[in-house]
Amino acid sequence: MRRAACQVLLGNWTGSSTVPSHQLYPHQWSWDSAFIAIGLRHLSPVRAQQEVETLLAAQWGDGRVPHIVFNRAVPLDAYFPSPDFWRSSSAGAAAGAPRTTETSGVVQPPVHALAAWLVHSADPDTSARRGFLARVYPRLVAWHRYLADHRDLGGHGLAAVVHPWEPGMDNSPCWDGPLARVEPAAAGSFRRADLVHGSAADRPTDLDYRRYVRLAAEYRDHGYRDAEAPHSFAVEDPGFNALFIAAEYALARIAEALGGEAEPHRQRAAALTEALVERLWSPEAGQFLCRDLRAASGGRAARDGQGGRLVAERSAAGLLPLVAPQLPRPIVRTLLRTVSGEHYGLGTAVRLLPSYDLRGAAFDRHRYWRGPAWFNVNWLLERGLRRHGEEARADALAAEVLHAAAASGFAEYLDPYTGQGRGARGFSWTAALALDLLARDAAGPKPAAAEAPPAASGPAPRIPAPAPVPASEKGP
Fold first, then answer.
1. Can you list the residues of the chain whose pLDDT is less than 70?
2. pLDDT tens-place string over residues 385-402
3. Which of 32, 53, 102, 170 is catalytic?
4. pLDDT given at position 64
């Protein structure tokens, strides 16, 4: 299995970074590269460092890390929205978009500091010799500062997302309400490339996509400047902010390793945790919910004085705060019950955590983030369970992740009931996170999934280290 996962990452390597999937996702994606680096560190720490640094080299002047870095060798019609839609180097000039690299203008969850710390920890000597942490730390600080200074749209300390692509769970039912207010782009005004390589039954609907395009075009036409854009979609997402918290703690570790000041990062993490609980925790739901900042006042919003309104839909994003170290213990206990309760059924109805409420009216076991189980979400949940002392449950989940990854050919995501692979096969973060769990498994008792038949025999090939990045390409 290790050998097969390694071959996936070798096959998806472009020479400077790793694509999620050559056909469906032929460019570099932000949080994909963070997860990929976490797995690559077990094969080539130097290449894992390059994965992170290649992404951060496309960072904007205002600090944002764009969710796509486009490969100019890929034809424009291979993916939509393409570089000529985003027009980052021109439309984003005032926000500091790179002049020579085309990117998208929106962001994805801030997993990068956690990835950087884990990559460093895999080989601290090589990392120190190459100056890896010293190079990425200022960029990560700028990235977090962007989220804190430009994206606190609710004014209460949490980062808001301004497009459904930003929290990573693109077409979650949590966005149905906020998106309903968005006027769709005209039918026929663009061509979706994703349907060439993916089943329409698995992908977002045309109506959803038309709204995505409208939002992205609106943001672009305001120069990607957060203070000026109308942000007709603005949501505080618990998963996004939970990863922001974990990333601040990781940044504190990086600062300490460099002999710097770690306390400001811990203070921000603590403030984010407090705001997360205050604004997004729902005792009635037994989990965290999204807050729609553009919803009209009324209902709970009118009573709590927080602005906007909590979205009633339950998604796996509301369980990801388990990765936060200082979450109040009563909330942790409630989340642990919710994970295995009727809405998610982990360990009872399903073997991997679904992305959306099993009992929700919008549940769809096949359609993208509206029900299927995703490997990165389950990897994060496994980490959260372990952090809060749930070792047996974490071991069981890790075993199921490994079994599902091998059985599905490292699928993009799965039917949560049958385990049938959906979306792309040979998906990079699935292979990378399987490698991470396998590496941890090798240091302790073997989970049951390790008994699954390997896809190929023999030792895993070692990924060769990449050539040094020329100074001209490293950025400031």
1. 193, 195, 197-198, 296-305, 443-476
2. 999 999 999 999 999 999
3. 170
4. 98
Residue 155 Ramachandran class (φ > 0 left, ψ -120 to 50 alpha, else beta): left
Catalytic hit among 412, 415, 436, 441? 412
φ, ψ at 236 (rounded to 5°): -90, 115
In this prediction, residue 4 carries a pLDDT of 98
Show the CA angle centred on residue 34, arms to residues 33 and 38, nearest 5°: 110
- Single out the residue of 338, 444, 423 nearest to residue 375, CA to CA: 423
From the list 350, 278, 342, 277, the residue with the least C-alpha distance to 314 is 342
Residue 89 corresponds to which tokens in the numbers above? 């180097």
Residue 235 β-bridge partners? 161, 292
Report DSSP state, residue 18.
B
Is 170 assigned a catalytic role? yes
Q: How many CB atoms lie within 10 A of CB 206?
A: 13
Coil, helix or strand at residue 267: helix
* Stated length of the chain: 476
User: How many other β-carbons are positioned within 10 Å of the β-carbon of residue 389?
Assistant: 11
CA-angle at 144, arms to 141 and 149, nearest 5°: 115
